[in-house]
Automatic annotation (TrEMBL):
<keyword id="KW-0489">Methyltransferase</keyword>
<dbReference type="InterPro" id="IPR013217">
    <property type="entry name" value="Methyltransf_12"/>
</dbReference>
<dbReference type="InterPro" id="IPR029063">
    <property type="entry name" value="SAM-dependent_MTases_sf"/>
</dbReference>
<dbReference type="GO" id="GO:0008168">
    <property type="term" value="F:methyltransferase activity"/>
</dbReference>
<dbReference type="InterPro" id="IPR016584">
    <property type="entry name" value="MeTrfase_VrtF"/>
</dbReference>
<keyword id="KW-0808">Transferase</keyword>
<dbReference type="GO" id="GO:0032259">
    <property type="term" value="P:methylation"/>
</dbReference>
<dbReference type="Pfam" id="PF08242">
    <property type="entry name" value="Methyltransf_12"/>
</dbReference>
<protein>
    <submittedName>
        <fullName>Class I SAM-dependent methyltransferase</fullName>
        <ecNumber>2.1.-.-</ecNumber>
    </submittedName>
</protein>
<feature type="domain" description="Methyltransferase type 12">
    <location>
        <begin position="54"/>
        <end position="152"/>
    </location>
</feature>
């Protein structure tokens, strides 16, 4: 099976990025996914940051902008060049060490192996194509970048095992039909199984329809 990540990133244009924080992090998080950005997502992002950090699926760089004082070195990774250019503007030159346009289903350069204390995947997994088992390949590629004690963490909107309200169901339907999301079969169990294949220590907390996860001690 050939997995294409382009449908999940093509929505991020210079125009849509100007509306992203308002629509996704304010309206959608509060009223569709019931996972408040300020109460849950920002603390989750900050709590697991290492001094040398990579953010994958950068969006607008919202979480990084809130956390610059906590990070010494930052790498940005995204398939969408618009997102990278948008986010890069907010990162001081002395902190930004890499800005990579990369498909996570493809291996990273070996020179990046074991380079990062922390890697964040916020709202990335539900945009990746396929089932959680398919997405495991992307997480495996990412795991090589972590140091021995490094932590992989993030958030993802679930499609199974959670109760979506009317607004959430409508967004899920639209986004999955357009290929922006691919998460109808994503559940806590499938997320845990996928992460446990690659890491010894897994933690998952569900808030609303969003799973906040951490994975440490890679296998």
């Amino acid at each position: 099976m050939t997995l294409s990540t382009h449908d999940g990133v093509k929505v991020y244009t210079p125009v849509s990025l100007k509306l992203y924080d308002w629509w996704v992090l304010n309206i959608s998080n509060s009223y569709a996914w019931h996972c408040d950005t300020n109460k849950y997502l920002i603390p989750h992002f900050k709590n697991h940051l290492g001094e040398r950090h990579m953010d994958i699926g950068v969006g607008t760089g919202f979480y990084l902008k809130k956390s610059l004082n906590y990070i010494k070195e930052i790498s940005l990774t995204d398939l969408n060049l618009h997102s990278l250019e948008h986010t890069k503007k907010y990162i001081p030159d002395d902190k930004l060490i890499n800005c990579l346009q990369h498909d996570v289903f493809q291996p990273f350069s070996n020179k990046l192996n074991e380079s990062y204390n922390s890697i964040s995947l916020f709202y990335l997994l539900h945009c990746l194509p396929g089932t959680m088992d398919d997405k495991k390949k992307a997480i495996e590629n990412i795991s090589y970048l972590l140091t021995e004690k490094g932590v992989l963490y993030g958030t993802t909107i679930l499609g199974q095992g959670v109760k979506h309200n009317f607004f959430g169901k409508k967004l899920m339907s639209i986004y999955n039909k357009k290929g922006i999301f691919c998460n109808y079969s994503d559940s806590v169990d499938s997320l845990e199984e996928m992460l446990s294949y690659l890491f010894h220590d897994i933690s998952i907390h569900v808030q609303g329809t969003v799973a906040l996860f951490t994975a440490k001690n890679k296998k």
